[in-house]
Amino acid sequence: MSLAFADRSPTKGELEKLRLILSTYQDGTGMLNTAGRNLPGWRDFERAVALAFGGEAQESKAIFDVLLTDPATGIKTGISCKMRNTLREMRRTGQAKIEVSNSAGYFWARLKQQGLNEQNYHTRPAEVGDAIIRLIGEWHDSVSYIRGGAVDVQRSCHLALQWDHRTGEYQLLQFSPQFPNARGLTWEVTGKRLVGRTASIKLFEWYGSSGGQLKYYPQVSDAVWHSDVFRLEPLPDASSGYELIRKTAGLFPQLWEEACREA
Known about the structure:
Layout: H1 12-24, E1 32-34, E2 37-39, H2 42-52, E3 56-57, E4 66-69, E5 76-84, H3 87-93, E6 98-101, H4 104-113, H5 125-142, E7 157-164, E8 169-175, E9 186-190, E10 193-197, E11 202-206, E12 214-216, E13 225-226, E14 230-231, H6 243-251, H7 253-262
Parallel strand pairs: 5-7
Antiparallel strand pairs: 1-2, 3-4, 4-5, 6-12, 7-8, 8-13, 8-14, 9-10, 10-11, 11-12
Helix pairs in contact: 1-2, 6-7
């Protein structure tokens, strides 16, 4: 059986499953609350992807957030799930926004092995950029089945969910887990940011002295696949309050009734 994202694009049915599962988080269980409206957040996205595509959510700091298992070989493919409220910005710039990692401690440990630190890193930006991108590659190698791990990294991907809280629109984009060669970019330190660029666009930002986030801005035109824009499905009549209450009462009718009598 072929795997979505690894061997083929998602089917219409799989995408609809994902949309509907994401829609359930409007019942009060979603991580986000925007203008009084409850919405799915990044962890909800990971769980929804796992459920919709028959995978396993890692629920940890694992390299990949969701693993899909090939039933024929037992080898897994990884999905790194990224969610950002940047759909409007993506439409304007033609670039998605992915926060790759915020592991400042690991990044600085690698840099210090090369004689780089908080005081001098700005004088050798190309070395810093190359070291950081190489470290991400080493993390991927560490879970590769070729090196004794369980994941086929070549068939894995970044899955970016870009959304716009003002319009309620969402779009999924799939990108390769392999980054552009850092040595082919121009690197500079601007304020608190290390920036890696091509001749025309910014591809990476690293906030080494303020949080350690590594951000990646792949071009939409480089996406392996992307969905149409979609919206969450409105919940059924919620006039009696959060759907979460209705769901709880449905799952535990007798216990809920007793609790209400004793309230």
